[in-house]
Design a protein that fits this description.
heterodimer; A: 172 residues; mainly alpha; two-stranded antiparallel ribbon; B: 189 residues; 3 domains; 3 strands; 70% helix
């Protein structure tokens, strides 16, 4: 269980560090979280190694061998990637989650579509996502038109090919 | 170090590859299969494979230190997290992400691009809400009576509340629009 305990400790350190840093200054892009996870990984490996040297290898719950560290690395990377994907849901409001919360707030009288679309309109659901594409340089906005960039086209082609491979229609 | 040892060292990644292949095969062979079921079958098949490999496979080829049971726990956990990344971070993006849908529409429009009005004529808030309500009714999260929607299951609602709590913890706000600080120089808000 050494790789699992090591990855859990490193991941806990990442969450605490992120909470502190983000409340102090929200970076607004994903690169910061990637850099932070890399820093935490290096710091964790160095700390585990130093602790094992100090304790003469007696800390049985922390990685010891190269094989332990390899499994720890794979697990930490998988955990961090899963976390980053979940974190994107924290940044952007999910329409499904917003709809559910609105229906729940309506209580016993329920919520009809006009009530939902009154709050969840194009300015809330579509325009911020277009803005994200412009900020991410996948789309440019010039004059009154949005045009896809080469990077945006590349990403679109990947999803078109993937959906065709699955024999599925356009999502959204 | 032999090729077999190298493959064993990255067993969770190999399992992820197997999961994707099974998912593609199932989607193509059984187009009527509900998508959540296809995902569950693909993820489950590869999970059984990776756990079986750790418990009954040639683990003696690997450096000593972990028992087969411990190896199964580490590999299974790593694989499940990678499968989550595939399902939520890749498959689900193509399935329901607004950004990907908009990007594909703009890509298909070519160099001419689209105005906001043209974009909204093909993809708009009403469509987004309708599709999600259909999915949630089919999935049993909400129920519909005479055009009015009610909460039917607490599971997804709990997840939604957890997300709100995380938003407050990380961003200090319940809604994304309250905290957006990055905006393009030009482009409508």
């Amino acid at each position: 269980m050494r790789p699992i305990a090591g990855a859990a400790l490193a991941f806990a350190l990442l969450i605490i560090t992120q909470l502190v840093v983000w409340r102090w200054r929200w970076p607004g892009h994903y690169t910061a979280l990637s850099v932070l996870s890399l820093v935490v990984l290096m710091l964790s490996v160095a700390t585990f190694h130093a602790l094992q040297i100090l304790a003469d290898g007696a800390l049985r719950f922390l990685p010891q061998s190269a094989w332990d560290y390899w499994n720890f690395l794979m697990l930490y990377v998988a955990l961090t990637l899963a976390y980053m994907i979940t974190y994107s849901a924290v940044q952007a409001d999910s329409p499904s989650m917003s709809i559910l919360l609105m229906i729940d707030q309506a209580g016993g009288r329920g919520a009809a579509v006009p009530e939902l679309t009154g709050a969840l309109n194009d300015q809330v659901l579509v325009v911020p996502r277009l803005t994200d594409l412009v900020v991410g340089r996948l789309v440019v906005f010039a004059g009154d038109r949005y045009t896809v960039t080469p990077n945006g086209s590349f990403l679109a082609r990947i999803y078109i090919a993937y959906r065709a491979l699955l024999k599925m229609e356009k999502g959204g | 170090m032999t090729l077999a040892t190298l493959v064993l060292m990255v067993a969770p990644l190999v399992a992820l590859g197997a999961c994707i292949v099974v998912h593609v095969v199932l989607s193509r062979a059984l187009p009527g299969l509900p998508r959540p079921r296809g995902i569950m079958l693909s993820v489950g098949a590869a999970a059984v494979g990776v756990a079986g490999l750790a418990l009954f496979g040639p683990a003696e080829r690997l450096p000593a230190g972990l028992s087969p049971l411990e190896l199964a726990a580490v590999w299974l956990l790593t694989y499940v997290l990678l499968a989550y990344c595939y399902v939520i971070g890749f498959f689900n993006l193509g399935e329901s992400a607004r950004r990907i849908r908009l990007l594909i529409d703009l890509h298909q429009a070519g160099r001419r691009g689209l105005t906001l009005e043209e974009i909204l004529s093909a993809y708009n808030a009403r469509m987004i809400v309708d599709v999600r309500l259909q999915r949630m009714v089919a999935g049993g999260q909400v129920s519909e009576r005479d055009g009015v929607y009610f909460t039917a299951s607490r599971v997804m609602l709990t997840a939604a509340r957890l997300l709100v709590w995380l938003k407050i913890a990380y961003l200090g706000s319940r809604h994304e629009l309250d905290v957006r600080i990055v905006t393009p120089e030009r482009g409508p808000r």
